[in-house]
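Reviewer 2 asked us to include a model.

Predict the structure of this chain.
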Amino acid sequence: MGTSPFFFRDNEMLNRGLDKLELLRIVEAVANEKSIDKELVIGSMESAIQKAALTKFGNDNNIEVIINRETGEIKIQKILDIVEKVEDPSREITLADAQKNDPKNKDLKLGNKVFEELPQIDFGRIAAQSAKQVISSRVREAEKK
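Predicted model (structure tokens):
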């Protein structure tokens, strides 16, 4: 009996969706079990992922990680300041380049920040371990208080 490739693809997509919701279920479980604020748990995960992303993309970058509280989706973005003359290409961009990258945005001006979406990375065991350590230490801090 063969399996339809369409079924497999749908199933894969379903699993990807479940992974994100699974993340939120873990947050819920940890928060309830340890009686700590969900926001603290999500913040811990965001900082662990940010640490892994800085290791992957370079520590000189200004990277922000946002976990969507509704969907569990993880967004990793590099923050660049719009400047007249670029001195640090990992943190700055010229107005002309920013406009080239985002031609639809007519409001760009010097001093603004632009967000460059970074590819999702496989955090693997190191990131999972890191998240676990951050959560454990935050849990201990919260329990002390």
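Confidence is low (pLDDT under 50) at residues 1-18. The two ends are 59 Å apart (CA to CA). We have added this to the supplementary material.
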